[in-house]
């Protein structure tokens, strides 16, 4: 069972700080009374809105008085933080204490989830093994305490983000990330979204039990919702070292972060300019709304920070080459071209970011040109024109009527929730 949890309509910063301190105290009581080496594993900058940065800073300051503390943002295949981003997210944590995870060079293989198990849990949709490789520092250094910090929210690959996703994706190696993302994509993104335990989560739970049982770790999981003023607030904190801790947080997130709506004809989504710089992450606007989109509808994504498609040059080039052309076409290419296997995680991303022709996606990017956006099979809207027309600072979350009578559904932070019709809620 979870060590403890708190669930309220709004947990103020002062109360959250006290809960973080309680988590630290429980770690000292349950895992190591006098730790010498502490590892903190927060999410990356694309989840900075969760408060994970200041939570990490607070834990660092608690433990730094008695131990050497190392912070590794769980980047997955995302770009490493700049020093400026680290200061913005983690405050006073010294730069020398923040390490950069390199998914291609820093990992060691610790096992594999067999092809037979993968085939069974995916009901035959994937039939390959998932190798398990993670950052070698996790398993090769003598940690007295490892704290996973994260935001539980609906997720396109694992149903809900965080928990052992921090290890196997956030600190995962290329082979793990590629094999797992493609397996999840074959199960269908709309089948994954909002499911407490997806086929891939089954695989990761098995891997954690078999290969990480000796790691002295704990999960500090937060859930967020919209407060009375329409702003994001903390509504839950869950602390513990087992699967039940995740399930409690995910069940809370499903109640808090899943919004049931009628089929939506026009959605306008805002992706924060200081967090989302590529369609690789900004496409969360597509993932989190696709179950709500009406056939023939339009999703407008306003993304002032958008300046590329992929997080790495080779993935950016890959997306520019193939585009978001739908699952049937991508699977056809998958059978013919080795490049799609070499970058299987990007192949999965192309499937996740495609609408299968059911609705259209219009991007209003801060830095990409019309030619670039249209080349990957999205529509283009000039950013300044989008801001002038929709005036997002004046819109409320939910239905809005524009001056010309057009009705839109506005979402200020699509990455923190999931929108679905009643018919697709259980899918």
Fold and architecture overview:
With 427 residues, the protein is of the alpha/beta class. The protein has helices at residues 13-30, 52-63, 83-90, 115-121, 136-140, 165-170, 174-187, 189-192, 199-211, 243-257, 279-282, 284-287, 313-322, 327-334, 338-342, 344-352, 370-375, 383-390; strands at residues 4-11, 37-41, 68-71, 107-113, 130-135, 145-151, 154-155, 159-160, 217-226, 232-240, 258-260, 264-270, 293-303, 360-365, 379-380, 398-401, 407-411, 418-420.
Outline the secondary-structure elements.
Layout (H helix, E strand, L loop, with lengths): L3 E8 L1 H18 L6 E5 L10 H12 L4 E4 L11 H8 L16 E7 L1 H7 L8 E6 H5 L4 E7 L2 E2 L3 E2 L4 H6 L3 H14 L1 H4 L6 H13 L5 E10 L5 E9 L2 H15 E3 L3 E7 L8 H4 L1 H4 L5 E11 L9 H10 L4 H8 L3 H5 L1 H9 L7 E6 L4 H6 L3 E2 L2 H8 L7 E4 L5 E5 L6 E3 L7
Parallel strand pairs: 2-3, 2-6, 6-9, 11-18, 12-13, 12-17, 13-14, 14-15
Antiparallel strand pairs: 1-10, 4-5, 7-8, 9-10, 16-17
Helix pairs in contact: 1-2, 7-16
């Amino acid at each position: 069972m979870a060590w403890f949890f708190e669930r309220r309509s709004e947990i103020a910063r002062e109360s959250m700080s006290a809960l973080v301190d309680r988590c630290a105290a429980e770690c000292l009581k349950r895992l190591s009374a006098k730790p010498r080496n502490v590892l903190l594993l927060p999410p990356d900058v694309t989840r900075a809105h969760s408060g994970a940065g200041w939570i990490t800073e607070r834990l660092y300051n608690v433990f730094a008085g008695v131990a050497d503390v190392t912070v590794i943002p769980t980047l997955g295949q995302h770009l490493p933080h700049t020093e400026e981003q680290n200061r913005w997210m983690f405050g006073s944590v010294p730069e020398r204490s923040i390490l950069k995870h390199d998914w291609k060079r820093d990992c060691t293989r610790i096992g594999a989830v067999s092809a037979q198990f993968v085939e069974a849990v995916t009901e035959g949709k994937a039939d390959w093994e998932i190798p398990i490789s993670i950052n070698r520092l996790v398993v090769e250094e003598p940690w007295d305490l490892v704290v996973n910090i994260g935001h539980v929210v609906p997720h396109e690959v694992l149903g809900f983000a965080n928990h052992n996703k921090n290890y196997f994706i956030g600190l995962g190696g290329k082979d793990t990330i590629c094999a797992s993302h493609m397996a999840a994509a074959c199960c269908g993104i709309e089948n994954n979204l909002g499911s407490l335990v997806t086929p891939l989560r089954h695989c990761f739970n098995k891997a954690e039990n078999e290969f990480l049982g000796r790691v002295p770790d704990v999960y500090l999981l937060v859930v967020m919702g919209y407060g009375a003023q329409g702003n994001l607030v903390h509504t839950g904190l869950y602390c513990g070292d087992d699967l039940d801790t995740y399930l409690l947080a995910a069940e809370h997130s499903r109640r808090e972060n899943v919004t049931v709506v009628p089929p939506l004809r026009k959605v306008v989504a805002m992706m924060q300019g200081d967090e989302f710089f590529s369609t690789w992450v900004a496409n969360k606007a597509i993932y989190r709304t696709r179950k709500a989109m009406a056939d023939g509808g339009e999703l407008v994504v306003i993304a002032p920070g958008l300046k590329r498609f992929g997080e790495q040059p080779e993935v950016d080039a890959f997306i520019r080459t193939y585009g978001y052309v739908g699952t049937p076409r991508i699977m056809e290419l998958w059978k013919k071209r080795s490049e799609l296997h070499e970058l299987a995680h990007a192949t999965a991303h192309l499937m996740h970011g495609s609408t299968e022709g059911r609705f259209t996606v219009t991007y209003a990017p801060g830095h990409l040109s019309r030619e670039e956006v249209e080349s990957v099979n999205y529509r283009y809207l000039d950013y300044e024109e989008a801001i002038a027309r929709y005036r997002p600072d004046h819109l409320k979350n939910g239905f809005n009527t524009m001056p010309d009578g057009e009705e839109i559904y506005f979402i200020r932070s699509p990455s923190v929730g999931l929108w679905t019709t009643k018919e697709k809620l259980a899918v």
